[in-house]
Amino acid sequence: MWMKAIVITSGILISEAIWQMYNAYKRSRRKAVSDGKARHKRKIFEVMFFSKESARCRPHIDLNAPCGRKDCAVEHLRKLVQYLDSATETLDVCMYFFTCPLLATAIVRAHKRGVLVRMVVDESMARNGDSQATKRFYHNGIKPKMKQLDTLMHHKFAIIDKALLITGSVNWTMSAFFGNFESLFVTNEQAAVMPFVNEFERIWTMLDSINAEQSNAVTNTNINSNSNTGKDTLT
Ligand SMILES: [Zn+2]
């Protein structure tokens, strides 16, 4: 009898614990969404510069703290991570070259919390020996789209929740952040964001149709080759 009571009590306690955990999760999601909405309400126009001087910031990246220098590259990177961490629904990234582990981690983090992540990169990035970031994306279930095209996929932009745009000259690589003269512009001004949203969709659809054409071509080649084989056998 007492055994039955223990089982029932344990069951009730476990159910209660699961229910409390579920409520805590729902509350944190609601807060994230409301924080995201609040962020999108205030106007954001932020300009960041990187320069040869940024190389001096690289030693303090592990401290994850700014050094007080004007245009501290670590501070800029921290802001980028914060923006990526603020994504609640979608994250679209179109980047010629992407190897920065800090930003790759933030993108994987977004994917893991349920954000729809879509990435387009230039195919040369995947062929690069230093494409640890690409491998990391694949290992975590993110499949960047890439295709050998006649021209370079030279864009460098990201769109968060279709409401915040990050764009500029800089590829998301450590060498670009810590040693090049580069710029970044962040804004939630819809007049600037929407053309990039449309451009991303256009590129995404274009890569889909190229892939479909190529797989059709492969199928047709196989069919022709099979039918030719049949014909040869008949004659
Ligand atoms: Zn610094």
UniProtKB/TrEMBL annotation:
Gene3D superfamilies: Endonuclease Chain A. It holds the Pfam family PLDc_2. InterPro entries: PLD-like_dom, PLD_domain, PLipase_D/transphosphatidylase. Residues 149-176 form the PLD phosphodiesterase domain. One of its GO terms (molecular function) is RNA endonuclease activity producing 5'-phosphomonoesters, hydrolytic mechanism. Keywords: Hydrolase, Lipid degradation, Lipid metabolism. One of its GO terms (cellular component) is mitochondrion. One of its GO terms (biological process) is lipid catabolic process. Belongs to the phospholipase D family. MitoPLD/Zucchini subfamily. PANTHER family: CARDIOLIPIN HYDROLASE, MITOCHONDRIAL CARDIOLIPIN HYDROLASE. This is Mitochondrial cardiolipin hydrolase. It comes from Ooceraea biroi.
